[in-house]
Design brief:
The chain is 80% helix and 0% strand. By secondary structure, the chain is mainly α. It contains seven helices and no strands. α1 packs antiparallel against α2, α4 runs antiparallel to α5 and α5 runs antiparallel to α6.
Length: 187
């Protein structure tokens, strides 16, 4: 994507995010006379904004873009949490969730990059990454809410996803040369 195209996408995404932040904050303030629940969608919008900005304007390696995005998003999360004087969830919930999402995404993109044969194995890797992310989300939220970790729903997700990923990997590697996704899905 060219630089003018990236700038145009950034402008469009920025306008949409500003409208979303304004709408959710106004609705929350009108209903509750305070900023409470809207803090979470605002954080999501700020995180998206930091990532889109880094990828639009930094002409560096993907890892540098992700690191800059993570640092910027973490600072925005901390600033918002401090500004709203809420539950002080940024250090215990927001930043750890963001950190593990980045780590899993980096691992997934590395698996994509080093895969010689790109076929349904990429879908399997994505399923496994999503299952791992579910375990991380449940671990972090349990620790934040209950001060102890009891994995329940994320283990169910893993029990469902791992056999599917195993079958996809078996199909991929059983076909010796693998199959291109375009051929597999007749695209």
């Amino acid at each position: 994507m060219s630089r003018p195209q990236r700038k145009a996408v950034w402008e469009l995404v920025s306008i949409i995010l500003i409208l979303l932040i304004t709408a959710t904050s106004l609705i929350n303030y009108i209903i509750n006379k305070a900023i409470s629940w809207s803090e979470y969608p605002v954080v999501v919008c700020l995180v998206i904004f930091s990532y889109v900005s880094s990828f639009a304007f930094l002409n560096r390696k993907r890892e540098v873009q992700l690191l800059c995005s993570f640092v910027t998003a973490s600072a925005l999360i901390l600033a918002l949490d401090t500004f709203t004087r809420g539950d002080r969830w940024a250090l215990q919930l927001g930043i750890p969730l963001l950190f593990f999402t980045n780590i899993i995404f980096i691992g997934l993109s590395a698996a994509f990059r080093i895969s010689r044969q790109r076929g349904i194995n990429l879908i399997a890797y994505s399923f496994l990454a999503a299952a791992l992310l579910c375990v991380c989300v449940e671990t972090i939220t349990d620790n934040y809410i209950f001060n102890h970790i009891t994995l329940t729903w994320s283990l169910i997700v893993c029990a469902c996803v791992i056999p599917v990923a195993a079958v996809l990997l078996f199909m991929h590697f059983r076909l010796k040369k693998g199959r291109d996704l375009n051929k597999t899905f007749h695209i």
